[in-house]
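_Per-residue structure_
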Amino acid sequence: MKRIVSTVCVPVVMVLFLAGCGSESGNNTAAVGDGTKTGSFQSVHGQTGKVSFGVVFSSPPNVTLKAGKDGQESSYKHPAFKKTVIVETTTEGFKWKNSGKADDYADGEILWEAVGK
């Protein structure tokens, strides 16, 4: 009899425990709201890509792109920067497109900065 009770009680207790482990709001991702996130990505000619902020902003942030490893390199020296544009921004990230061709040498690292409103 004890074996039947323990076999039945443990799964019931586990189900009740797991059912109560969710967040109260139902959203497990914290919003940044106002704030700044930065990062970089490799832009490749003729390609598109998606970059995640790693957090969720309360509204789509203002995203700017910068050229070079330190963001100070002139755009004329950085073909990837001249050919890469942001095509969509959401609260979770942005999509980019590089319109360059193979002979443009339009590949390179692009820095980005997202500033919440």
